Design the sequence.
């Protein structure tokens, strides 16, 4: 089972990656930019696996680039308290 199959697992996965990046001293702007790049990749290369991902994909496709950056920033905020604590 892929982490993309379950939205809670996906948020945990992203939360773990976020915490790892922060522990390694990555700047918040860099993290948000990487989240934008991940969103762009997912929107063009990966089929949504659940209803939540479908909504995010639909929003991403109708959003301007500025709005896509806002979505990426909100995803970072959403997962900041997620993860397994690695």
Sequence:
């Amino acid at each position: 089972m892929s982490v993309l199959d379950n939205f809670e697992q996906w948020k945990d996965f992203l939360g773990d990656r976020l915490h790892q990046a922060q522990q390694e001293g990555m700047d918040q702007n860099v993290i948000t930019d990487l989240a934008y790049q991940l969103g762009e990749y997912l929107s063009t290369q990966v089929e949504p696996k659940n209803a939540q991902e479908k909504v995010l994909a639909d929003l991403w496709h109708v959003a301007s680039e500025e709005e896509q950056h806002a979505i990426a920033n909100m995803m970072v905020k959403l997962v900041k308290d997620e993860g397994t604590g690695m």
